[in-house]
Write the structure tokens for this entry.
Amino acid sequence: MARRKRKGKGRKGKKGKKGKKRKANPAFKKPVTVDDALFAVIKTRRCSRGQIIKKVWQYIKKKKLQDPKDTRFINPDDTLAKVTGGKRRINMLKLAGVINKHIKK
């Protein structure tokens, strides 16, 4: 007995949302102040959280601080170690949480 083919494509009975865009959270664009340890890395006193993360990653790439064997880890230099709490190796997924401790609202 042959299976009957369904007409149409995609999921049955579900329609995608049309015209509705996701709104950006204004809290991420709000400028915040950083402390002296983080200022030494990003060279900016006030900027948004997204810009702070972006500048920290620029610093990491410029100084080649990413572990070449396991790129999930960062080997901070002396300047970045002040931000990470003196840790010699940090997971890149934990970086935002570590940076958050150096942000003043």
